[in-house]
UniProtKB/TrEMBL annotation:
It comes from Metabacillus litoralis. Keywords: Oxidoreductase. Belongs to the short-chain dehydrogenases/reductases (SDR) family. This is SDR family oxidoreductase. Pfam families: adh_short_C2. The lineage of its organism: Bacteria, Bacillati, Bacillota, Bacilli, Bacillales. One of its GO terms (biological process) is carbohydrate metabolic process. One of its GO terms (molecular function) is oxidoreductase activity, acting on the CH-OH group of donors, NAD or NADP as acceptor.
């Protein structure tokens, strides 16, 4: 069974791999043998993740890029190619949030969040998937969505809209890339104590989340590793594409 999830010989690019969730997923892939490119705006944080991966016996390198800037992404894909010769797995885990009330959202804030969460993911897929196709590599693209993508949450309007777009993009690209042997799926995490949601986790909101989560707890970032490794593995999920995988403690199954 271990061969099903073996990623030895594969290179994974983790966009937003210096974040709480992105770094945990990257470490999970590394533990299965993948070589990891950690990509983020904050190079210091990216290097810290690389150090942690190397301490566990993995191979990784940090790269700096801004997903809202096409030129930045075009440059980093060349750097990663020089380092690894190519890549087989793309993890899209950038994220930006805001609790601004709807009537107070400015055009600038809307554009900023959309540029990172949605447009940035689109541009990343354009650049990296094109390289995978040109190299004749089969591969896996894993997009990180959110529970707010299917049931919009209060206080995070722009974020919810952007993540709904991620789901649609995931299914469209699954159809677009299937003839090239590239699978595209999304993970829908429930509530994890990541940077972008800590600032809106008041006592009342935590109680509301727990009442809507059958497992009555937050997720641990490491609990995303299994789903991500499964989707990354050609052996384990070769016929899986266009799916939205919930890892949410049952949040999505609740109504009243």
């Amino acid at each position: 069974m271990s061969n099903l999830f073996d990623l030895t010989g594969k290179t994974a690019v983790a966009i937003g791999g210096n974040s709480v969730l992105g770094s945990s997923i990257a470490k999970g892939m590394s533990a299965q043998g993948a070589k990891i490119a950690i990509v983020g705006r904050n190079l210091e944080k990216a290097n810290q993740v690389v150090t942690e991966i190397e301490e566990d016996g993995g191979t990784a390198k940090a790269f700096q890029a801004d997903v809202s800037n096409r030129e930045s992404l075009e440059n980093v894909v060349k750097e990663i190619e020089q380092w690894s010769g190519g890549f087989d797995i793309l993890l899209n885990a950038p994220g930006k949030n805001s609790a601004t009330p709807f009537f107070e959202i400015s055009d600038e804030e809307w554009d900023d969040i959309m540029d990172v969460n949605l447009k940035g993911m689109m541009v990343t897929c354009q650049i990296f998937a094109k390289k995978m196709i040109d190299q004749g590599r089969k591969g896996s693209i894993i997009n990180i969505s959110s529970v707010s993508s299917t049931t919009p949450l209060s206080k995070v309007f722009t974020y919810s809209v952007s993540k709904a777009g991620v789901n649609s993009m995931t299914q469209f690209l699954a159809r677009e890339f299937a003839p090239h042997g590239i699978r595209v799926n999304a993970i829908i995490p429930g509530f994890f104590p990541a940077e972008q949601n800590r600032k809106i986790l008041s006592e009342e909101r935590v109680e509301s989340i727990m009442n809507h989560t059958p497992m009555k707890r937050f997720g641990n970032p490491d609990e995303l590793q299994g789903a991500a490794v499964w989707l990354a593995s050609e052996n384990a999920s070769s016929f899986v594409t266009g799916t939205l995988i919930r890892v949410d403690g049952g949040f999505g199954s609740m109504t009243i």
